[in-house]
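Re: the multi-chain job from yesterday

Posting the exact lines I submitted so nobody has to dig through the queue logs.
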Amino acid sequence: MTTTAPPTPSTAPAAVAPAAPTADAAVALRPVPSGEARITGGFWHERQDANRRQAIRTGYEKLETAGNLQNLRIAAGTATGEVRGPIFMDSDVYKWLEAAGWEYGREPDEEVLGWIREITDVVAAAQAEDGYLDSVQQVRGNGARYVDLPWSHEHYCAGHLFQAAVAIHRTTGETGLLDVAVKLADHLVATFGPGRTEEVDGHPVVEMGLVELYRETGNRAYLDLAQWFVDARGHGIIEQHGKEPTYFSDRVPVREATTVEGHSVRAVYLTAGAADVAAETGDAELLAALTRQWEGMTSTKTYVTGGIGARWDFEQFGDHYELGPDRAYAESCAAIGSVQWSWRMLLATGETRYADLVERTLYNAFLPGVSLAGTEYFYVNPLQMRAGAHTDEERSAAHGRRPWFDCACCPPNIMRTLSSLDAYLATTSGDGVQLHQFATGTVHADAAGGVELAVSTDYPWDGTVRVEVRGAGEGEWELALRVPGWAEGATATVAGEDVVATAGEYLRVRRTWAAGDVVELVLPMGVRVVEADPRVDAVRGAVAVERGPLVYCLEQPDLPADLVADDVRVRVAELRGARAEHRPDLLGGVSVLQLPVHRALGAASGPLYRPAADEAPEQAAPETVEVPAIPYYAWANREIGPMRVWLPRA
Amino acid sequence: MTTTAPPTPSTAPAAVAPAAPTADAAVALRPVPSGEARITGGFWHERQDANRRQAIRTGYEKLETAGNLQNLRIAAGTATGEVRGPIFMDSDVYKWLEAAGWEYGREPDEEVLGWIREITDVVAAAQAEDGYLDSVQQVRGNGARYVDLPWSHEHYCAGHLFQAAVAIHRTTGETGLLDVAVKLADHLVATFGPGRTEEVDGHPVVEMGLVELYRETGNRAYLDLAQWFVDARGHGIIEQHGKEPTYFSDRVPVREATTVEGHSVRAVYLTAGAADVAAETGDAELLAALTRQWEGMTSTKTYVTGGIGARWDFEQFGDHYELGPDRAYAESCAAIGSVQWSWRMLLATGETRYADLVERTLYNAFLPGVSLAGTEYFYVNPLQMRAGAHTDEERSAAHGRRPWFDCACCPPNIMRTLSSLDAYLATTSGDGVQLHQFATGTVHADAAGGVELAVSTDYPWDGTVRVEVRGAGEGEWELALRVPGWAEGATATVAGEDVVATAGEYLRVRRTWAAGDVVELVLPMGVRVVEADPRVDAVRGAVAVERGPLVYCLEQPDLPADLVADDVRVRVAELRGARAEHRPDLLGGVSVLQLPVHRALGAASGPLYRPAADEAPEQAAPETVEVPAIPYYAWANREIGPMRVWLPRA
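And the result, structure tokens for all chains:
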């Protein structure tokens, strides 16, 4: 096939959510559209409000001041000058557009719609007659195309455009950006694939974008091309450009890979896209390969926060068990990619472990990437900061959150994730409704003739999740609530009757429901102390503290002036008794854990290396000091200073 | 001052050794010229032989094939084409020339001298009329000069030229390269400094080079410029170029710095040059600042091997105690810079701790950088390699030694260090002779009217160092032998009589000597087990094993097939009883340590993160397996695989 028929966009959106499988897709679960699953209050709602009020507005301005929009105008010939920024500048525009689209779906807003239309016009004007679109390449490359796909990000930008166009079409019904996307996608279909140009982009994401565009338009050519892009990797294409293929997720075929490696964002964007392909093609072999890789990632290459990517150099996954907390790269975008991948694995399989990782990653690897005010971002998310010789200014410059970046991939990526977060709450399956994430809100699902749920919870501070059936549907149907893997000892009642809740499984209740029926799930909110596989050398002899879905840390502003976070030692049995205390005044309102800790002894004396004692020596004072641990996501919202997730044993 | 008088090179070399202080220098000790201190047999002699037979010859060829010499020819106008390689390509030529110069001093060789002359002609031809010389900049920069000193390495190349010219002049007496160096130095003096161009190079080394050129020529202007370059740093010059100054050793003035930071090679080249300046100017304040920084480095930022530089990203020192063994960068060049700095601190102060670090670094951070055959190099020297998912091919590509590098700073740097190693053996001071490093060889010193010593030892395998006085000199004089800081329990005899030897001090014997008098120092060669300051998170709960000056490691080829190095656990008390066994057949002849180790239990099962036990759980089998540990310097001379310096406690 060398050309494709013009697509016929459906007039009604397929689903107002990202990753919306077609009716034919091989999935166990189907998303409930955001807009049908709504977060209406509580923890995440506050973040979404800040995202709407502050971040998306600021992002709109940044696209202008950082030069992204001007680049497109220059490409369109409506402005002159040099294009600015990295080669993938257009992708920031598309991620912002996607965020604005989902945000419009959360709550229609004429101003946001106006921005979407305005920027869509800018994008459309830049597109070449034949559909090609990449402003930086169009201008800097003097019209040359695809000459260095490993680095040029031309497909990467396209993928983000497709995702944005689909989001806007699903939430607004408008086809302006979708028309641009389709024109570009048709150009890609005409240009790439077997017997055409057999090249792949160095940075995956086009795979997810093409599958979503297929879902939105019904044009099978997009799915075919996505499938080809997935299967073309690992066969030496990148190496033909003289580049080392691991970084580009091109060392081994996706079907043969046993773990994740190379650039972490590239790796998980690819696996997320491959999961979309597997779902739409019913490819069990591909799904099995992705399952293997997901298990490889979570068993050897994931921080306790859910963050991924251990290496600053080339932003890569490291070796197995290379998970040093101090230099954790754990890019915010990698956390987002991980959530996207796990979400697709959840849809495909219906297994709670994927929703568990979504939860862990959202709270502890994604959320730390944005300030409490919603306006400043971390690109890199270390799990430890030492007291150092560096000045505060320098430490802040190295590690503080920033309003934007020269490489600004993370901020609009965070925006679009917060805007579409409602979609991760719940799914449907046949005559069932599954609740995966816990937030105050409502779920309307088309199971059993129409089900309506109202969820209320103070999660993550409190473990009680109350689900009231407001629309009871017709006949028997199953309500399933995820009981997180961490929630050993969870209890539940259905209409006042005790039922068994097992950690790591769904609490499944099948019955004929009546409006007003209540399911109450009570998750144990005691302090959990965890340690790592002994092969994680970097945290040997240390433990981390969790409560509910949250990973905690000690941050210097909460410690006595004479106790540096570096010198804290802990005893596990003592930590288990730590009290939680909700502090509405602190960091936007957090539950702190009052940890009894010990002061390290002798740390400040002696040479760097010294004769070893027969047994690891006693290094802590016997008495305890009570210090509040804060949720890790909330760190670095005060002065930047020493912080630790992993606490050495006394 | 805007110009300088032409220098009058002294006809007789000042000292046939690097870092040769003038008679006026404020130093406690003075080098014995290499050629007067000679390594004639044993451990280091074998390495020097390989360096002479293989490396320097190969290096000569590489300068041609990698394009370094061609670059100079293009700059000279005697060849055409594009210059190749990084901006500092000339420096590889100069480091090789320096190596050849010192090598000629070790043993005159007409072929080597021929190469020196040939390449000197190539260099001289490229030099501009006014003395400027930098082939890559001359060609690529189209004649522009010093437009981007933070990155251009123009002074860096000059510094290496000066060191080479001085070496060749000291050992051959020939002035060809010295003339080039003087012409370039005069150009620098005319161009840079107060009231002239007030800029500094992003990569120090010109400071050492200028001081040495001052020592060789007597031209004070070179010392003045070196002093200005040292003092100009830390005042915002690099920041004016829009660059973050830490990396370039330009964040704080040298006199105010309390530790080392930024790019590790830059940092220690600067401090070494500053130590030269302090010696020649008698600047006690500067020396005190350098002492503080050296203490900062050794107390918080040095690997147990002596290696420095924890970060792959930007090749930097990390924070205090950021010393992860798996990702240790520990660049070979940084080890060399550390040796150069410590050597200069030793000359300035006469304190054994500096010679201790020279020893530790030479054996365990410098030597691992070159293969046993002397022909392949490590740029990066990790202290640990895990069994990983990566293929052997990939692991080898990432970590194997290579014959050369695109950025080939390390190979010729290693060559010049091995060629000049004799110089680090001994010093003189008034009527004393000090022996700092232990190798079979001879020392002629001009103390007491002429002293001659013959040293014989099987160091580092055996701890006995026998020093025979062959030329007894006149009257009383003092022989001082360094007793390493690690050598608790050392014993000694002088002419058969016991004397006290104290670890970390000189064994000082003042007497009227007779030819045939023997001092015998016996260093304890038991296994030493060391642990790190508890603030070194990355090796918490682990110990390292040393014997004599050597740090040991476990490498997979020496382990049973069913025991991966990652899974070894140790008990300190058991390790202390480990037997040493000399294996002439293994790795060029090494003493292995037969370590009783335990097998980790349960490591392969369970999730990555798990509920923590109250006490760190028993994780090792009770029975021991005896496995040979090899000296760390010898690793990666067989197949590349798992390796560990730090062994977790059972």
